[in-house]
Amino acid sequence: MTTRIDRRFARLKEENRPALVTYFMGGDPDYETSLSIMKALPAAGSDVIELGMPFSDPMADGPAIQAAGLRALKGGQTLAKTLQMARDFREGDDDTPIVMMGYYNPIYIYGVDRFLSDAKEAGIDGLIIVDLPPEMDEELCVPAIKAGLNFIRLATPTTDEERLPTVLENTSGFVYYVSMTGVTGSALPDTNNVSEAVARIKEHTDLPICVGFGVKTARQAKAIGEAADGVVVGSAIVAAIAQCYDDNGKRIEDPAEAVATLVKGLADGVREARLVAAR
Amino acid sequence: MNKPAEPNSFRIGPDDEGMYGIFGGRFVAETLMPLILDLEKHWNEAKDDPAFRAELEHLGRHYTGRPSPLYFAERLTEHLGGAKIYFKREDLNHTGSHKINNCLGQILLAKRMGKTRIIAETGAGQHGVASATVAARFGLPCVVYMGATDVERQKPNVFRMHLLGAEVKPVSSGHGTLKDAMNEALRDWVTNVEDTYYLIGTAAGPHPYPELVRDLQSVIGTEAREQIQELEGRLPDAIVAAVGGGSNAIGLFHPFLDDRQVEIHGVEAGGHGLDGDEHCASMTAGRPGVLHGNRTYLLQNDDGQILDGHSVSAGLDYPGVGPEHSWLKDSGRVIYSPILDDEAIEAFQMTTRLEGIIPALESAHAIAHAIKLAPTMGRDQIMIVNFSGRGDKDVHTVGKMLGMEM
Asked: Which residues of A touch B188 (CB under 8 A)?
C-alpha cells in the first residue's frame, strides 16, 4: 500500500529536502474561512497538511490550539464537517497528503468503521490520534491500516529504547517526533537533542521522521530541518489565524493571506536546511 | 446495550489491559504512557509489600483516625419509619472526608517512586485539601488545579490549601469545574514527567488509577462490612453512596459486590433535572465515550464533544464517572439513580436538624436517596449510607440557596 504520504516523502527525498508539515484546526473560526486557509497551504509551500479535528477537552494541547478548537466548535464545526472540508479541498488538489489529527472520542461516537470509510472516500491519507497509544491499537489503528490509511504515531522524549519498537510497530507514513515533553506550542528545545533523538529513532525504522512541538520561525524550521525529514508547525499557524481577529471577533486581516505569508517564510527556512547541510 | 453474561465474581476486574468489560483502558498521549506503566509496576509491588501496607495502616489509624464509626442514625430512621439507617462516618476523618484514604496511599507510592513534586485536581476542594495535607506531612511541594468556578464556590477549602502550603491554580477553560481542572493537571503532568507524581482524586483516569484508588478506598467498605456484622449480626440489605467520579462509592461497594443479598445504590447528581443539560447524571443520561484516559459513561453531544453538566455539589460536577461504575451499571449489579439539587438540599437540612451532623452536599445526595428508599423497606431491614464528607465547606452555598443573609 502506498499513500499520498509515501509518494510525497519519496519525492522530497529525491529533491533532498525536508518536508514542511502544517497543522491548522478545521473550522477555525468558521468553515468557509478555514477551507480558504487549507486551500492556500500547498501554494505557500506546505508539503503535508495536518487537519485538526476540534475536541472539547484537548488534554495534550497548549492554549493556542485549545482556543482554536473552541472557536471551531463555536463556529459549528463537527467531525462530519471536517471530513467535508477534506472533500472540498480534494476537488482542487489530489496530491497534497492530508493527515487528520485530534482525539479519539469524536471518532468513537461517529463510529470507527463509518469514520474510516468516510475518511478514505474524502481523500484522507493518515491519522494522528493523540490519546491512542500502541496499547489501544485494536480500537482504531489496526482497522485504519486495514482500510488503507496511515496511522502516524507520536514518539516523545519519554519513549525509551525499550519502548520504541512497540511505538513503531504499527506506525506507517511517517513518525511524528514530539521534540519535548509538554503541551503543543511550548518553547523550542535544544536542536542538538533533536538530532540525537532523530538518529536514535532512525536506528529502528526507515520511515521519515518529522519533528514538531514549538517550531515558530523560519530559523527554527531550518534548524530542525537539518536534523529531520520534516518539520511540523502548528501553534504558530493557529496563532496567526487568531491574530486576524480583534477582541470582539471582528476580522481585521485575511487569515488565508496571513497564514500563506507565515508558511512561505517557514518553507524558505525548510528549503535552506539541506543546502546548509550539504555545504 | 446487551447485558453481559453475569460473572462468577464482580470483584475480579480490571484485566491486564486495565479494562472492565469495554470500560477503562489507557487512552493517554504517548508522553504519559511510560509513566502510567511505571506507576502500575510500582503499585503492584507496593500493594503486596507488608511494609507498605503496615505504614499505610499506621497512618490510617493515627493520622486519619480510622476506623471511622458506623453510626446508627436513630432519629432519621424514626422520622422515616422504615429501614434502619447507618452512616459510615468518613466525615470524621482527618481533613473531613474520605479523600484522605486515597491521598495517604498515593503519597507513600510517590515517595517510593522517588517523585519530588505532587500535582492534583480538585472539584469541591476536598481532594485538594487532602492532597495538600499529605504533601505537607511528607514535605513535598504540591500544586492543585481547581476550576475557577469551584474556587469561587469553595473558598474555605482554597484558603485551607494555601495554609497547608499548596499552590492553587485556578483553571478558567470550559465552565471552570472539575473536568477542566483534570485537563490542566494532565497538561502539567505531560510537561513535568521526570519529577512529578499526579495524585488523582477519584477512581477514574487511565489504568491503573481506577484500580489503585478503589483499592485504597476499599477500607471504607471493608470496615463497614465488619462493623455491621458486629452491630447487627448480619450484612445490610442495602448500601448507598453518591457518585461523582465515584471513589467513595466504589470504596464502599467493592467489598460488598459478591454479597448478592446486598442491594447496591449509586446516586448521581440530577442537578435541575435530566430533561436538559443541567445535571451530571452520566450513567443515567450519558453514553460510553473516551475522556481523561478511560472509556466510561459520559455526558456528550452527538459529535462526541463533552458537555459541562451542572450540580449544586462541586464534588459531583463531573460529566464522567469511574470506569468500574460503568461496568457495574451495565452488569446490573449496582442501581444508579439521580437526585436533584433541591432534594439534596432538603436532605442536607434534615440530617443537620435530626442528627446534628452537617453533611457535605455530595453525601447529602446519598442521604436524599436513602430518604426515598427507607420508607419502602421494613423496619427490620438495614441500610448503610456512605457519609463521605462533612458539610462545613458547603454552608455558604446552602445558605445562599435558602436565601439566608451570609
From this structure: none
Determine contact: B200 vs chain A, CB below 8 A: no
Distance CA A238, CA A46 (A): 15
CA–CA separation, B401 and B113 (whole Å): 45
Contact A59 B292 (CB under 8 A): yes
Report chain A residues whose CB lies below 8 A from the CB of B178: none
Chain B residue with minimum CA distance to A77: B303
Encode pLDDT of A20-54 as tens digits: 999 999 999 999 999 999 999 999 999 999 999 99
Q: Quick one: residue B40, left, alpha or beta (phi over 0 = left, psi -120 to 50 = alpha)?
A: alpha
Active site residue A50: yes
Q: How far apart are CA B5 and CA B214, in angstroms?
A: 23
E strands, B148-262, are 167-171, 196-198, 238-242
Look up the pTM and report it.
Answer: 0.95
Separation between Cα atoms, residue B245 and residue B265, nearest integer Å:
15
Question: Would you please indicate which residues of B are annotated as catalytic (active-site) residues?
Answer: 99, 121, 388
For residue A235, the Cα-to-chain-centroid distance in whole angstroms is 11
Distance CA B34, CA B199 (A): 17
Query: Does B30 reach chain A within 8 Å, measured CB to CB?
Result: yes
Reading the block at residue B387, the C-alpha cell is 457519609
